[in-house]
Records
---
Amino acid sequence: MSDSIVGVDIDLIDGLNEAARSTYPDEFLCLIREIDGVLSEMVMIPGTVYGDSHSFLSQWMAPIDYSIAGSAHSHPGYSNEASDADKDYFSNMGGVHLITCQPYDRKSWQAYNSKGEKIKLPVIY
Ligand SMILES: [Zn+2]
């Protein structure tokens, strides 16, 4: 779990939003892999159940894969605020977490640290 994340790849943002759109009105979620400190790739979790309104989060175990930097998920509404369940999950897992919301565009996401605090991450184009 890296504590030196320097940015997020625009392709990850686009991919996350695309997945969020296709999963809507259910929630989309995945883990994120970092490459050289940049959040770069979505990592799908086998057997993930979508659409159960955050109850899934607590069932996740932090992965052994140390290139995993955190997670990303979508909200079906227009708020990218972390819920209490989200914050619990973030603190259990550590790392950096993205939440995107409608309209699922390049401005609709927010990054959080493991304390559930909003953080700013530069977008790498
Ligand atoms: Zn959430």
Note: The longest strand covers residues 29-35.
---
Amino acid sequence: MSAALGEAPDDGPPLGRELGVVTALPTAGGEVRFDSNPDPHHHLLCTRCGRLEDVPLESLPVAPRADVEESFQIEGFRVVAEGLCGSCR
Ligand SMILES: [Zn+2]
């Protein structure tokens, strides 16, 4: 019997990216969206029409504080900015 079945490599990338599949993206309202963009990016979520837009990381610069990184090894994170899209404003 193979013990390796289903085992993830210890130092591999996040599972969703590794498999090239959609990533579940929970939103503040408890809803879960699915994200098929494998590149690192953040999101803009319209709270009126529900539109979810991808934006490059540079558009929403976010950096963890040093004390967080000391206590937790961050391998990736996503930011969802909530507000009103161009059509709903
Ligand atoms: Zn909208």
Note: The pocket of zinc ion is lined by residues 46, 48-49, 51, 84-85, 87-88 (CB under 6 Å).
---
Amino acid sequence: MDSITQGIHSNFADLTDSHAPAISMTSAYDFNSAQEAKDRFSGKVTGNVYSRFTNPSVDNFQRKLAIMEGAESAIAFSSGMSAYLALAVSFLKQGDHVLLAGGIFGTTTHLFRQYFDKFGITAKSVNVNNKEEWKKKLLPTTKMIIVESPSNPLIKMADIQWLSTLTKANNIIFVVDNTLLTPVNQNPLKMGADLVLHSTGKFIDGQGRTVGGVIAGRKAHIDILRSYLRSSGTCMSAFDAWVLSHSLDTLKARMAAHINNAKAIVSWLNINPNVRKVYSTFNSLLDSSSHCPVFSFIIRGGEDTAWRCIDSMCLISRCTNIGDTKTLVTHPATTTHARYTDEEQAHYGIDKGLIRICAGLESSEDIIHDLAQSISCAVDRNVCNAP
Ligand SMILES: Cc1ncc(COP(=O)(O)O)c(C=O)c1O
């Protein structure tokens, strides 16, 4: 039985005998005695204490996700960014240094560079595929390396095995953001990462309803994060965890459908004369099991043309998210990656004409039809005439 099947069949919330797990909407729990309260608070006996850090619905989601990622344990947070915050506060101290893959989600870089600097924690970015640069920028104080694989929006794969060897030799915590591929298409822990992180409002949710984050890895690491969560209170809600547990059950089927659509659209974009470049796993990877439904393209003409193209879309939603049933479009240079300077954007390839698409679950012909008319409107400056 593979880990996805096991995850689907694993429901841990011991609430009722309902086949679909019930939701545990409660702030607190009854203790049978003062002694039991003391023992649960101290951790001497297991059991729920208070929903800031123990809740059956959240526990169910964490355990299902851990199984699918091949992890000993997992812990959920209120957002992907609060998961990043948890990593930094739990594992870093004054004087420590962090290396981030260059060009990753702008807010992740901003969090480390803008806010931790004043606490004496420094962060530098590295071109993800430049091995010499990783070695050169490594300091004796480097304590954490963070990559997205693939990165968003340029879909660059990190060499996880190589980075794992580098980090193990230097006693560095190696974190892989697996939001774009999900546990269905990549298990970074099995490739040598120490911790895997997801923004769960993306493909794991699948319908754009929730905001959340989760980190999976060895129990020793997750216990440290759990202790932080108890003090920080940046927890996932029971309702969101319940939604996400159900979503995990359909993740494999949804990813296959997203990927089929992305493949058809990328093949069409590859031969479109108004498209200067396409970034996608379909153009770079042979292994079909790790393709990604997110891809980007540079339209001829720069930012004005890119904006006209986005504004001419009728079916595709202008929406800064990924992993929805609807196909979504973003202009990274002015939204998700606007926190990088112009020089950094140029350095990491965030072109002003770059348009990011996340293929939804509509019929691929309809998505291609909308792209065809919007690209033509943008380039030829026609009035949008789509239905
Ligand atoms: C790859 C990636 N990681 C992390 C995040 C942050 O997650 P959240 O929006 O849940 O805080 C995002 C957000 O869009 C993302 O794209």
Note: The first strand starts at residue 73 and ends at 77.
---
Amino acid sequence: MASATNSSRGFAMPRQWLAKDRAGDDAVSVGIAADTCTTGSLLPPGATVEIASMFEELGISRALDELDATLIGLTGVKQRLREIGALLLVDRVRARFGLHAPRPNLHMCFAGPPGTGKTTVATKMAEILHALGYLPSSHLVTASREDLVGQYVGHTAPKTKEVLKKAMGGVLFIDEAYSLHRPDNERDYGQEAVEILLQVMEEHRDHLVVVVAGYRDRMDAFFELNPGLRSRIAHHLDFPEFPTADLIEIGHRMLSEQGYELSDAAEPVFAQYVSRRREQPHFANARSIRNAIDRARMRQAARLVAAGGLVDRSSVSLIAPEDILASSVFEAPPAATASTLTGP
Ligand SMILES: Nc1ncnc2c1ncn2[C@@H]1O[C@H](COP(=O)(O)OP(=O)(O)O)[C@@H](O)[C@H]1O
Ligand SMILES: [Mg+2]
């Protein structure tokens, strides 16, 4: 199901919002869009604006700093978001000087494998765009094929519109967007969902930012088949696989956020776990690390309960080597050893 991660919508969609003929449709008045850029009185030509403090006042620098602090790695993504934030801010300042500031196209593509932070960054971006006044709300709705595409004739349009209605005012995040296209099935309704999306991305770009996400190569192939979609997406951000060192750091960060830490002896075991896990099937970067930590906590709890006796603050906070070593990841020999063993 499509899910709203933030319920503050504050946006009532007019009945006719998806009507084909939009002539005279001025019911969409949420106090943003074109006039956003002109909020604040017009400044005289000789005036000056303290741009850094404006960045701060709007909460953009806070949101970006938070992103820097909470997310490990992703240098390229962080850099691009700073650039987008800066561009939008300068647009606002330009508008106050009466300079041309058309509403920029903010639809985006986040390309990368699972668990590389795409949803997390999209959530933060919704906050930034809201802080800047480009979106009336900071909520994010995630949707995948099942939420958008129906099973029979006449089923798809209402489903897609329902999701769009939920997302309106904020960000719609479409995970594995290419799954909307099923080339093997000519009676598939995915294309119908794409057509509706395209229409809304164009007509409601003042009220909705669409982020399409998924593997880079499959995304590229999807764009090849849907040039209309590609042309509506202005920003392409790459979310690369994390190097092992970053995954280890992500693990440390997640543990400390939950009030846990690795014992000295568990440190090298965890590092080994990460190296082995990333070579295994269904590895999903930071998400796999989060799952591993959840399981380690469970094993620690089981170990403490089984041992009985007294526990203290330190014993309930420490993850021991055995809490990690019990993972099935340690059952198989590491990839390098396996090939050596099966070699000639
Ligand atoms: N760079 C990062 N630093 C720390 N934690 C991260 C990072 N990227 C992702 N995570 C965590 O990993 C999990 C999966 O991230 P998510 O944004 O859902 O990935 P995706 O949408 O790319 O599949 C979340 O719990 C998130 O907090
Ligand atoms: Mg995701």
Note: The first helix runs from residue 51 to 57.
